[in-house]
């Protein structure tokens, strides 16, 4: 039986059903074995997909039919030569030439570095600001994310093979959440086939009947799952099971610089396994709206403010108070390509 604090928070846990809340472990309603045995998790997943399809229908006219068809089929797009060559050259030079306060995280054999592209950094990066304001860039994120919502954007550097350790947690096949959502990478460097290329299971943004049956069974025990991230709603799956769920083989993307890779990360994906030391640098973006709102939005909620920095500051303050951090830390001035 829940304690008095559980009963006190019960209304909030119930209200979270109408939001993008996903953690089975932290919400006793979402993680209830009895409710999920009756189909609660799958009902939320199906409803979110239907509402997202209606929002996308309203946003579809902003994209060429070929882009829509390829995304609707596969769940991702890889668009080479995304920016005009002259604009990309200016963007790349100014991003790689900057030294900016950066945040880093080491997990497994990988170090990830993030530099926010926001109101603090973008005024010094005019070509980058121009590229990220392009109508096609925005339209792709709106449609795939199913919300007219400005994405959060960062310069992301991924160094693979920095130490003798297993691959990082992003290298396991997983879904980010239960509802359609968007992430993208505009690559500033080539990503060869033996590096940590983005890997996606084509069509997995549209669950098969076997997928839904597997996810329903998993939701019943997810709150107690031994894998922490699965318990938090980012479901992990092994490669052998993917075929049993009815999906084709995963595709690991080897791309050249100036390729935009953009995907619905409610489908199964991972950071590819690197066969040695490697470095990839991209402008990484993501957006995630409320999955149950019927309207697509007005696109007024910008990502140029201090939301991410405020969130990070709160995380750091909590880590200092509790002595338990999540591994991310500010490391001073860094350029994106500076060795770890």
Account of the 3D structure:
34% of the residues lie in helices and 19% in strands. With 340 residues, the chain is an alpha+beta fold. It has one domain (12-334): q2cbj1_9rhob like domain (Jelly Rolls, Sandwich), CATH 2.60.120. Strands 1-8-5-10-4-3-2-11 form an eight-stranded antiparallel β-sheet. The chain has a three-stranded antiparallel β-sheet with strand order 7-6-9, with no helix packed on it. α3 packs antiparallel against α7 and α5 (85-96) packs across α6 (126-132). The chain is globular and about 55 Å long.
Primary descriptors:
340 residues; alpha+beta; Jelly Rolls; eight-stranded antiparallel beta sheet; 11 helices; 34% helix; globular
Summarize, please:
This protein is α+β, with helices and mostly antiparallel strands and 340 residues long. It contains 11 helices and 11 strands. The chain has one domain: Jelly Rolls.
Mean pLDDT level:
94
Q: Give Rg in angstroms.
A: 20 Å
State the domain count.
Answer: 1
Strand order of the largest sheet: 1-8-5-10-4-3-2-11
> CATH topology, what is it called?
Jelly Rolls
Apparent shape? globular
- The termini sit apart by 48 Å
* Overall number of strands: 11
Please tally the helical runs, counting DSSP H or I stretches of 4 or more residues: 11
Name the poorly predicted regions: none
Q: How would you sum up the major sheet?
A: 8 strands, antiparallel
Itemize the secondary structure elements and their pairings:
Layout: H1 4-15, H2 33-37, H3 40-59, H4 65-74, E1 76-79, H5 85-96, E2 100-107, E3 110-116, H6 126-132, H7 135-145, E4 152-160, E5 182-187, E6 198-200, H8 209-221, H9 228-231, H10 239-244, E7 251-252, E8 260-264, E9 269-271, E10 278-287, H11 307-322, E11 329-334
Antiparallel strand pairs: 1-8, 2-3, 2-11, 3-4, 4-10, 5-8, 5-10, 6-7, 6-9
Helix pairs in contact: 3-7, 5-6
């Amino acid at each position: 039986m829940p304690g008095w604090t559980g009963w006190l928070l019960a209304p909030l846990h119930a209200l979270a059903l109408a939001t993008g809340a996903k953690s089975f472990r932290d919400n006793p309603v979402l993680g209830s074995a009895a409710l999920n045995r009756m189909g609660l998790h799958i009902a939320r997943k199906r409803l979110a997909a239907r509402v997202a399809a209606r929002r996308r229908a309203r946003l579809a006219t902003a994209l060429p039919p070929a882009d829509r068809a390829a995304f609707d089929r596969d769940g991702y797009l890889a668009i080479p030569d995304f920016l005009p060559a002259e604009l990309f050259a200016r963007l790349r030079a100014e991003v790689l030439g900057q030294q900016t306060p950066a945040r880093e995280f080491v997990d497994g054999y990988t170090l990830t570095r993030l530099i926010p592209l926001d109101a603090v950094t973008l005024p010094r990066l005019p070509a980058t600001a121009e590229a990220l304001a392009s109508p096609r860039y925005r339209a792709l994120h709106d449609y795939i994310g199913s919300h007219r919502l400005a994405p959060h954007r960062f310069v992301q550097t991924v160094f693979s093979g920095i130490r003798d350790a297993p691959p990082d947690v992003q290298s396991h096949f997983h879904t980010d959440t239960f509802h359609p959502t968007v992430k993208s990478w505009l690559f500033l460097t080539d990503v060869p086939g033996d590096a940590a290329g983005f890997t996606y299971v084509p069509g997995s943004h549209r669950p098969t009947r076997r997928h839904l049956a597997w996810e329903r069974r998993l939701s019943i025990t997810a709150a107690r799952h031994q894998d922490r991230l699965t318990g938090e709603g980012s479901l992990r799956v092994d490669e052998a099971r993917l075929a049993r769920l009815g999906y084709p083989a995963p595709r690991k993307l080897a791309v050249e610089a100036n390729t935009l890779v953009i995907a619905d990360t409610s489908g199964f994906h991972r950071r590819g396994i690197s066969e040695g030391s490697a470095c990839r640098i991209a402008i990484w973006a993501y957006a995630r709206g409320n999955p149950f709102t019927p309207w697509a939005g007005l696109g007024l909620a910008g990502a140029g403010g201090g939301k991410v920095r405020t969130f990070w500051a709160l995380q750091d303050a909590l880590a200092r108070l509790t002595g338990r951090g999540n591994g991310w830390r500010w490391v001073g001035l860094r350029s994106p390509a500076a060795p770890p």
